[in-house]
Design goal:
- It is a single chain.
- With 300 residues, the chain is α/β, with parallel strands linked by helices.
- The strands form 2 sheets. Strands 3, 4, 5, 6, 7, 8, 9, 10 and 11 form a 9-stranded mixed beta sheet that branches.
- A hairpin with a 2-residue loop joins strand 1 and strand 2.
- Helix 1 crosses helix 3 and helix 1 crosses helix 4.
- The longest helix is centred in the N-terminal third of the chain and has 31 residues.
């Protein structure tokens, strides 16, 4: 005898019908009849009198019903209480990912983290670099994986990954013949750029300035990389982006050339609010990935 069988027994009693009870339990009438028959065999006596109008309880059935109802209620209360306690004990974590960071980190790794830390409930979302910073500062996010904001006043930054930059050009552009380029090679080009909510723009502007020119901007994209690739495909300009985040396989007229400048790279890692205490869930998440990238972890 188990609690499920008693639940089915109580449902049949309340419905006065195997057919109606089966529908409410989302099982077949045959399956329900089999469960009740097995219960009666286990008890050694009939619980119901079957007739064409439905079912009536036997004397033993009437005796068992209130006790079964009490057991079912106590069990349901027990499960509810346990689930509430588990939910209260779960550590909730809100994480922001800047474009491209989740792609490199890997959704599979997030799933593995969840399996390893069942007590941590994760809510993730994608935001621009600047939005990641603002949401961490206002407390909407516990942490974010984004480009280094270089703002030690407001953030603690934990470096995770460093990727090189490339220039994406049309195959008819003279730059396409080069094995690598420097920013000085780009001064006479028209540029497709991302808008200023992407911190890579700050890196590019610093290097444009060092190379002695202001970029001639053909178009600024707010988020859609495919628009930037389309303009390059049409030879309307060049686009500088992160090597590992660039996917131009479907384009026939595009070439990717490495930028050979040691100081020009995409630096991404975790940010948390500087003056806020880093909660245990955040430490677990950050340390999980810092260790995978062979970085120093946060002391718990």
């Amino acid at each position: 005898m188990d609690i499920a069988s008693l639940k089915y027994f109580v449902k049949v009693c309340h419905s006065n019908s195997f057919t109606k009870a089966a529908k409410e339990l989302f099982i077949t009438q045959q399956a329900l009849s089999r469960i009740i028959n097995n219960l009666e065999k286990e008890i050694g006596a009939s619980l119901f009198i079957r007739n064409s109008r439905g079912v009536n309880l036997t004397e033993l059935g009437e005796y068992i019903l209130p006790k079964a109802e009490a057991l079912v209620k106590d069990f349901d209360d027990f499960i509810f209480d346990i689930n509430n306690k588990v939910d209260r004990q779960k550590e909730k974590l809100k994480i922001g990912f800047a474009p491209g960071t989740l792609q490199i980190l890997g959704a599979k790794e997030i799933i593995e983290f969840r399996r390893e830390y069942l007590g941590v409930e994760i809510d993730i979302g994608e935001y621009s670099d600047v939005e990641c910073e603002l949401n961490v500062l206002n407390g909407y996010l516990d942490l974010a994986l984004t480009v280094n904001p270089k703002d030690e006043k407001n953030f603690k930054y934990y470096h995770l990954m460093k990727e090189g930059l490339i220039v994406i050009v049309n195959k008819n552009n003279p730059l396409a013949a080069k094995k690598s380029v420097r920013f000085e090679d780009l001064k006479n080009e028209k540029f497709i750029l991302l808008d200023d909510t992407f911190r890579i723009q700050r890196v590019l502007m610093e290097h444009f300035n060092k190379a002695g020119f202001i970029p001639n901007v053909y178009f600024k994209s707010s988020h859609d990389l495919n628009v930037a690739y389309d303009f390059v495909e049409l030879n309307k300009g060049i686009f500088v982006f992160v090597d590992k985040l660039t996917h131009v396989e479907k384009y026939n007229n595009i070439r990717c050339i490495p930028i050979d400048v040691p100081t020009a790279f995409w630096d991404a890692g975790f940010i948390v609010k500087k003056d806020a205490k880093v909660n245990n869930a955040s430490k677990k998440f950050i340390n999980y990935f810092l260790s995978k990238y062979s970085k120093d972890i946060i002391k718990v």
